[in-house]
Amino acid sequence: MTVFRFSLPTLLLSALFACQSPSTTERHTAPIDQGFEHEGVQIHYTVAGSGDTSLVLIHGWCINRGYWSEQVAYFSPRYRVVAPDLPGFGASGKNRTTWSIEQYGADIAALIDHLQLKNVILVGHSMSGDVMLHTAALRPREVIGLVGIDNLADVGHTLTAAEHAGVKQFFEALQQDYPTVVAEFAKGNLFHPSTDSLVRRRVLADFTSADPAIATAALEGLFAFSSQEAARIAALRVPLSLVNSDANPTDTATLHRLCRAGFRLLPVPATGHYPMIEKPELFNRALERVLRKG
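RE: above sequence
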């Protein structure tokens, strides 16, 4: 069984970097929940820590910032850690009509401005691998590195006619019976055999409770943006790292070729699409190696 990565549309059918190590003497602050308004939409986020390097943790499709709670606790003693709810999901507002990757990237750029973040490392899970690519283009002075979580594994793949037809059928099915289709999709594609039943129930509850129109539009926005991934990665002037499940191969040759500032892959073994909650200790160590260039 393959694990679906939302930046890889073909799987619907079957379904380094360097940064300065923050001072360990930085004052640690407890997580607090805050919010701000961007283009009339309220965006809620959790912020903790006070390091001179900022980690912005961007969740994936149909989930929320709560999936990063283990990482907020682990990294905030040494970094400033910010975890937003993307509009349309979690506690953030739903009062907009555009749910594109470009709009989400603008939301994260606005969050960077709002908090006056510097030395930003964007950490994007699933769909938000593309969100971080667009954010990096919008805020090149502030962003010093990108880390994708279970995404960007087959950049540059072109869909065949049959694959396009399969994608069209999937979206038609979502529109007809979103709860059933999205639940079956998650069960069949997102979990490893060892994935805990609590994790499975959590993901399924978040998927099925999402607003169907927003969830479908956001996924359509991802497909519209995915053809830009190779060009966006080639344009990066900061390193890209991936912390991916090893359930599917990552096309490292293409990424090494595209990433002029450096590319690195750290696989997380025997996990599904949500390594940050499935194996948080192992995941945190992998992410820490990336951050410390270890």
